[in-house]
TrEMBL record:
Single GO term (MF): hydrolase activity
SUPFAM superfamilies reported for this sequence: Isochorismatase-like hydrolases
PANTHER family: ISOCHORISMATASE HYDROLASE, PEROXYUREIDOACRYLATE/UREIDOACRYLATE AMIDOHYDROLASE-RELATED
EC number, UniProt record: 3.-.-.-
Organism from which the protein derives: Variovorax rhizosphaerae
Keywords for the protein's UniProt record, in alphabetical order: Hydrolase
Protein name: Isochorismatase family cysteine hydrolase
Domain of life (superkingdom): Bacteria
InterPro entries: Isochorismatase-like_dom, Isochorismatase-like_hydrls, Isochorismatase-like_sf
Domain Isochorismatase-like: 8-186
Broad enzyme group: hydrolase
Length: 199
């Protein structure tokens, strides 16, 4: 591992079939042939590959619920919508990772966390895993920018992590939402693209 990379880790959020695949139930609100979808997938692939080359730990965060949604508190429109459309059911194709962005099962540096709220830290073992790998700097990316990404970034910053957002590996249904979220996070995190997130 590059000595300058010590203490760095990647959080990859919601790279799942229901979120990214053209046949997924959520699909980020993007059309099946949207060039934004292809660009986000390509950027996420590059992010994961770059982390693997540098031997950085990667935590793949997925959202999933029981088939009857008994483990989902439907106190917000986003959660009521998930239940209404039958998305990200545990054990289903939709809740599984998008094939080209799936964890490397043979790697001892990659972990999977399941969560059930907006913030990836809430009610999960994410903080414990980051302590185990001695992470102090996080590169965070995923879908959607203005929900799980921003919520997780804000929590991480409050916990004392130095955070970089890999902007090109994030997306929202509307470009305006994505851009506004990046501008908001720019107050508390570094916004990077491509190889720049590794420096």
């Amino acid at each position: 591992m590059d000595p300058q990379s010590k203490g760095s880790a990647v959080l990859a959020l919601h790279y799942q079939n229901d979120v990214l695949h053209p046949e997924g139930k959520i699909r980020v609100g993007l059309s099946a042939d949207s060039p934004v979808r292809s660009a986000v997938i390509a950027a996420a692939q590059a992010l994961l590959q770059g982390a693997r080359q540098r031997q950085w730990p990667i935590v793949h965060v997925r959202i999933a619920f029981q088939p009857d949604y008994r483990d989902l508190i439907q106190n917000a429109p986003i959660f009521r919508n998930v239940a209404a459309i039958g998305a990200v059911v545990e054990g289903s194709w939709g809740a599984a990772f998008y094939e080209s962005l799936a964890p490397d099962a043979a790697s001892t540096r990659e972990f999977v966390v399941r969560h059930r709220r907006v913030n990836a830290f809430y009610g999960t073992q994410l903080e414990e895993l980051l302590r185990i790998v001695d992470a102090r700097r996080l590169v965070i990316a995923g879908v959607a920018t203005h929900s799980v990404v921003e919520s997780t970034v804000r929590h991480a910053v409050d916990m004392g992590y130095e955070v970089t957002v890999a902007a090109d590996a994030c997306a929202s249904a509307q470009p305006a939402e994505h851009d506004a979220s990046l501008r908001s996070m720019d107050l508390i995190a570094r916004i990077g693209r491509g190889e720049a997130v590794f420096s």
